[in-house]
């Protein structure tokens, strides 16, 4: 598919609303479990195909690659404007990949399957919308749209303590995003007074002249919304609960995508809108990120629930990403965004594997598991691979991002970068503890009831189909990250130049 | 010759490893081993073919760009120079022999595919370290060997200790890697490149004040990988792995990577005299420490592990006193005879029915005399018996230290000579306990595959005559290795001094051998003393680290979790929630569910508003 | 206009207050509904009066709408009363307080 034929279609709208159409169809066919799951798979698959077409077909240019812009509510200057550059393209592609995985991992969903798939698809619309919107109200709409399906996914289909986790997640993020809403409206009014044109468009709002105090205040509002989502220490405590209690698809989406929306919001909205305040906040961000790296790694080390370890590892990895952003140079930013994508793939893969493990053994407790290599060699091999990727083994995906972040950060904060490098040891400590607890040692005590001699079934065809592409992606991104770095280079250098936009 | 052939050097083992990892379980049994052996052997042959490429400053070749960003360019690129070539030849050669040996050793194991896949991947990663033209690729290999070592130490994963030993090795070496990473970051920040040749070339541009910390950081990395003080505790535990693994990874190749790193960056390292002195001191201290521990070890492989540590200490000392050639020479010779010793030990363990404890062996000479002679050669090399390879290489190091003439070097030399005596003692102790006397074990011998024996003679020859590689002029040699590596040949000492030193070395060798001969030729049970236990447990460093590092770590971790996350952050958040709930409880009572009550409120409100409007209208 | 507008306003206010009191004080659902009707009619009365006062047709139109709506509303609410009566066997409003906080 060529660039020309791509732009003739309203492809962004298509990619954005396709999942919503899937949602409605799912609800329509809610009586047929079969129809729903295939609908979900087809929809996410179609989005994936579109995303791949975009990824392959679009040139790597710094500016917007595709835009769609229509008047929506002219009275308030709200526009339906979507735009795609290298960064959003990458994140949309990541979303597309992980959503297919999320549907496949919940293939055997038994409770209310129609509603489940409908919510997963609705979530996809929300996430893609966040990555595409350039009108602040439209962005906010999608931002909140993500929240609701996730709330129900955790609250209805989650594990033991699900309602607590769901509410905690909801209130943390809502509190943050309401601050952002206030800031958006204030900014809108200030800009309207200054220029006489009332508009929520990102480009217009960026022109606003703000006094330092006001700028800091508004930036604070945005920052709060985004760092809660990232999450940055000390706003992270919702994440371990939410990740742990969420169903498999929910964990994959949370770790793989929702956290990324926070980072994306920072670099797309918070930094460009308030460049001076952003510069002033960098030391704070760096310190918090560094604390997060250590703090989360330490806590991860003493957890006994596998999912919780992975959840805390997400906090640590996001600390690396934020540290990279705080370094504010090309190298670190490329590393940060690369790490973000890599983290999505590896952590998504890990959550998928943990779900498979739980299906088979009924447990996620490190003390009870063990010796899985004996009974599930293929599963274990994948598990090892993703754990290694997560602890940053060179040649696998996370390393490339981490080392770029460290190299970039060392240029600006040498001591911080050196300390952050120590975080890598801790990540080895907790990840190997997981590997030890799950794969090695004598065979664990836990067996699913009715199994003879604890012989579990190794991967079935659907699971192979799910894991092989992710594993290939992990290796590919590890040895040839240029695939991702190329489209990122231009947009990043634009964003770094005083927060300029295409 | 096409320089791209060099790429095959690393691609071949990688392919073998990946094929075994992905499809090994579908392949017939012999195919797995065959695949692994042939890929490494092909690498070895290729090294020989490519040998001319190393001359004249070496050859550089790039496969593709791995990481590229503003100012950073890290390729999958190889640099084949004399130093790398000699190491590559040794690694692929020893690895080929050990692969063949392993095919015999692991004949009846399950999971052969995993074993050979990891072994092949190890060779790949090791070659990355040796051949990398930039520090990032070197780091890839550096971590890669760490992972393979982790997987192979814990190969028999169903015993928990094995897997734990693997984890310990990985994490302790990773502490060293941290220093290496910081050095890498710093070098990039200072020079804007990660290319090794360029770093070496531009090392003199650096601020002399910065070089010392940089060298110390690099030393930290080397210490982790090479099991030097204070990061040495993982190596003895690593002996939990299968014996071919110990021979390949924990004796011949991976543990010497630290020495190689320091040699590779020698132009940078040599700029800091403090750094060099520290390297030498750490080497000497480790040599002495490890030799003292080896005196009282009971497990055959642990004796060898401590001796490895000690010999690597010598290599560090050689780098520290400025002689790359001596270090590399000792590295190569040591690789040969230590691989021989480990492989022999593997065969001995089979002979003794899986028994590790040397006090339960004995009398194995009668069971397999040929193995005894091979093992004897290894022991002689290790002990530094005159005219063996080990003697020449060790002598060269000590001579260099002696010839420098300053006080520190004299102390180092003294420690080295004394350690040589200790080495001789524990080597012969091992030999006597294992081969002489009567068989003290109660297990019957396992079947000994011919592969376990017939891979050894070649190594024995190499060990025995390894001294010829760099034979000094004094003995009529021509210092081939020094010339090949392009470094300055050793200093010439006056003839009487040389002879005096030679005599002294021989004296210490005999002084080590004699007590061993007296005490251990006839087996007598030893009483356990606290002193012995102290040495057996490696000066109790493990317990120290447990108390000083691990326990506080766990405490802090638990504190962060319980105190930080749960009590503080969640406490504050949930406290806010509870306060709101509390107040909400009062307001809740207003909602009676009675419409008329609500309407009453509505009406009163209306009245108030009307009243207010009226008041305004009046005034 | 034969009746002065003031009188009409007073009457409407009285009616409205009567209706309001009925809604607030009575416990019988049907009485409450009657109260609501009375209030609506009070409002209608004012509309008619105002329409006559200013000679504008709008008020009367609105009242006709109001009557139509009122009848619809009454039919629905009475149906609901019947339903509620069937559920709890009472038309006492105090029985229906499920929304109590």
What does this structure look like?
The complex is a heterotrimer of chains A (502), B (619) and C (101). Chain A has 502 residues and is mainly alpha-helical. Chain A has helices at residues 3-8, 11-28, 33-57, 86-105, 113-132, 136-157, 162-195, 202-205, 212-229, 238-245, 248-273, 275-301, 306-327, 330-361, 372-375, 377-390, 397-412, 414-438, 461-479, 482-496, and strands at 66-73, 78-84. Chain A has a domain at 281-493 and 498-502. In chain A, helix 3 (33-57) packs antiparallel against helix 4. Chain B has 26 helices and two strands. Chain B starts with a helix and ends with a helix. Chain C is mainly α and 101 residues long. Chain C has one domain (5-90): Helix Hairpins. In chain C, 77% of the residues lie in helices and 0% in strands. The model of chain C has no long low-confidence stretch (mean pLDDT 89). Chains in contact: A-B, B-C. Chains A and B meet through helix 7, helix 12, helix 14, helix 16 and helix 17 of A and strand 1, helix 5, helix 6 and helix 25 of B.
Which labels suit this protein?
heterotrimer; B: 619 residues; mainly alpha; 4 domains; two-stranded antiparallel ribbon; 26 helices; 2 strands; 3% strand; C: 101 residues; Helix Hairpins; 3 helices; 77% helix
Q: Give the proportion of residues in helices of chain B.
A: over 70%
Secondary-structure element sequence of chain A? HHHEEHHHHHHHHHHHHHHHHH
Strand order of the largest sheet of chain A: 1-2
Low-confidence stretches of chain A: none
Report the biggest beta sheet of chain A as strand number plus sense, adding barrel if it closes: 2 strands, antiparallel
Structural class of chain A: mainly alpha
Rg calc of chain B? 31 Å
For the termini of chain A, the CA-CA separation is 24 Å
